[in-house]
Amino acid sequence: MLDPDHPIARLLEKDQRYSLEAYVFIFEALQYAQDVLRMGAEHPTEPLPGEEEGESSEAQRHVTGQELCEAIRRYALDQYGYMAKTVLNSWGLRGTGDFGEIVFNLIKVKQMRKTPADQRVDFDNVYDFDVAFEQQFKITPPE
């Protein structure tokens, strides 16, 4: 159970477009992008609101919006196969712009960071869900 005082719990109260599972999935996909796909390079990130410049002691490996969209696609296919689009839709995710909405919601509540170059529009129309998730599968009967 999510602590009601957790920033994501408060976010879910204010913005009910996406389920908790969608937020968890975005975190998992980011981890997948960095650890499995080896995406991201070290970049300075903006301080979180209320944090002084240089206050964060650890280097940040940054994944761009487009890279994260691709990682999300690959992670969803890896985790859910043919059902990936259906699962994502059930959480409120219908296009790559929704990934950007979640990421920037998480930035607002200090759960993710961004670089000065990152913008919400970086996530818009990166790929079509139907093409990315449904047309990738070809079932071939055994010979």
Model description:
This protein has about 140 residues and is mostly helical. The protein is about 45% helix and about 5% strand. It has one domain (about 5-135). It is built from 6 helices and 2 strands, in the order ααββαααα. Strands 1-2 form a two-stranded antiparallel ribbon. α2 packs across α3 and α3 crosses α4 (about 85-90). It is globular and about 65 Å long. The model has no long low-confidence stretch (mean pLDDT about 90).
Mean pLDDT: 88
Tell me the distance between the termini.
49 Å
**What structural class should be given to the helix and strand makeup?**
mainly alpha
Strand content: under 5%
Overall 3D geometry? globular
Short description:
This protein has six helices and two strands; from the N terminus they run H-H-E-E-H-H-H-H.
Topology, please?
Layout: H1 7-14, H2 20-35, E1 41-42, E2 61-62, H3 65-80, H4 84-90, H5 96-108, H6 129-134
Antiparallel strand pairs: 1-2
Keywords summarizing the entry:
143 residues; mainly alpha; two-stranded antiparallel ribbon; 2 strands; 46% helix; globular
